[in-house]
Amino acid sequence: MAAPVTPGPSASPAPVAPGDLSGGGSRGPPDPPPEPKQLPELIRLKRDGGRLSEADIRDFVRAVVDGSAQGAQIGAMLMAIRLRGMDLEETAALTRALAKSGQQLEWPEAWRPQLVDKHSTGGVGDKVSLVLAPALAACGCKVPMISGRGLGHTGGTLDKLESIPGFTVIQSPEQMQRLLERVGCCIVGQSKKLVPADGILYEARDVTATVDSLPLITASILSKKVVENLSALVVDVKFGGAAVFSSQAQARELAEVLVGVGASLGLRVAAALTAMDNPLGRSVGHTLEVEEALRCMDGAGPADLRDLVTRLGGVLLWLSGQAEAQDEGAARVAKALEDGSARDRFERMLAAQGVDPGLARALCSGTPAQRRQLLPGAREQEELHAPADAPAAARPARQRPLPAGTVELVQALPLARVLHELGAGRSRAGEPLRPGVGAELLVSVGQRLRRGTPWLRVHLDAPALSGPQRRALQEALVLSDRAPFAASSPFADLVLPPPRPTSTHTQQ
User: Fold this and answer.
1) How many CB atoms lie within 10 A of CB 299?
2) pLDDT band at 15, cuts 50/70/90?
């Protein structure tokens, strides 16, 4: 884990001589501003544990955007930050510099209380944004979601949406405003106009082993949200075997920094701590996750996905003052899933962002089987079976039924790594993906499972899984002899921002 973010030192004001009205003790002309440091000097300073000034950070970000920073220099600085950390002031300065690297988004003042967004630190099977953005729009919110691509072993929201033929993630600020007017939500990527510096650093982090840097995560997330001029933001901070942070304590540290830096930037941020040991839902992979998101918007789908969508939506509606309590907000989001209004907003968003209106309508009104025919698929499917006590060849033909086991865990990390190898993830920035590659879980945690029965269906473009891939997947299934049980919600805890000031002039 990266060095922790710690509060920065506060500078004491210089003494002022009696009668001096200049604001300082010195007389005469002011000192000229210091010469900007060269990039190698900035990298060396952070590498050796020094503190970067706001000007230093601005200069680094400017070099990233104008192309004067070489790829090796960007990677070196990211690694120095990963190993040495940043204090709160440096992290806030990096967030501001990233946010100011492009155009700021401006909305009608009347929208201010309605502007909300959600971000996730990344998980396996995490398709919450696909469902939550249109559900919040159906509840009266404006959701200008600037999202990202796959990072490490986790899938990216933009990659999932781009598996829908025609979907366009690059939208100008003017186009975003029209989308919010017509639909209530949009899901877009960074462009040269919107947070371009973070787009460059985001791709570089993916291939330089700096994904888990706490200050880099914080600045990346919040810079995209600062330019949105939001009323409220909820961040889904994952922890567990397939998350950036393995322990809940590490996730809480990030959550508290996000909330604190957000407050220093004037943004109300709540951070949910959610478990990521098992995949979220039953599907992993771009088109398969789009299909599962649509099932959730049908009012069906996996319970853990629905639970997380409604809880996070409830937090946002409450935090932005659009619901009296979190439970009331969650009930409104659940109603949007059940009555089809979230799915209607999703269809309108697809059509407004480049998908043929006929295809958008067919996807949102079709059966699961019909939807599968409309999206890119993999060439092959291979099912894995729960391991038996003895090899099949050694069992008598009329053997008694095999003993049962209870699914304790489906380890998300080895599943994601195999799918990454099969083409669902990137090893290099800009590398193309195979949208049909993925996996369907045929079992649920807590379920009683007969050994020897199918538990996983892998969608792949290769002729077959390799031996090591098959073994890695089989080892991801953990069975026990205990009685069946109800799986717990992935939602573990919530870190809230400071209370609003009680002044009557505070904007609600």
Assistant:
1) 16
2) very low
| 367 has catalytic annotation | no
Residue tagged active-site, from 205, 252, 343, 348: 205
Rg over CA atoms, the chain:
25
Of the candidates 58, 118, 282, 286, the residue annotated as catalytic is 118
- Selected catalytic residue, list 225, 286, 311, 332: 225
8 Å CB contact between 38 and 75: no
Q: Which long-range contacts (CB under 8 A, 24 or more apart) does 310-315 make?
A: 310/334, 310/337, 311/272, 311/489, 311/491, 312/118, 312/128, 312/132, 312/234, 312/236, 312/272, 313/132, 313/135, 313/136, 313/139, 315/234, 315/270, 315/272, 315/494
120 noted as active-site residue: yes
Query: Does 119 qualify as catalytic in the annotation?
Result: yes
Structure tokens at 168: 């366009």
Determine which helix (DSSP H) or strand (DSSP E) holds 456, and give its type and residue range: strand 454-460
Active site residue 205: yes
Active-site residue (options: 58, 96, 224, 306): 224
Q: What is the mean pLDDT of residues 84-90?
A: 95
Please report which confidence band the pLDDT of residue 394 belongs to, taking 50, 70 and 90 as the band edges: very low
Q: Which of 101-105, 205-209, 239-243 has the highest mean pLDDT?
A: 239-243
287 counts as catalytic: no
Give the pLDDT of residue 396.
47
Burial class (CB in 10 A: 0-12, 13-18, 19+), 28: exposed
Contact 331, 151 (CB under 8 A): no
Is there a catalytic annotation at residue 427? no
- Over the stretch 163-207, which tens digit does the pLDDT of each residue have? 999 999 999 989 999 999 999 999 998 777 888 999 899 889 988
Residue 426 among the catalytic residues: no
Residue 376 has a pLDDT of 95
**Is the pTM of the predicted complex or chain greater than 0.70?**
yes
37 flagged as catalytic: no
What is 116-129 written as a DSSP string?
A: EEEEE---TT--HH
Catalytic residue (one of 95, 120, 274, 320): 120
**Among 59, 87, 117, 304, the one annotated catalytic:** 117
Please confirm, yes or no, whether 225 is among the known catalytic residues: yes
What is the overall mean pLDDT for the chain? 89
**What is the model's pLDDT at position 17?**
34
Per DSSP (E only), the strands in 67-181 are 116-120, 143-146
**What is the rounded CA–CA span in Å between residue 434 and residue 376?**
9
CA 296 – CA 299 distance, rounded (Å): 5
* Among 2, 495, 20, 506, residue whose Cα is nearest residue 261: 495
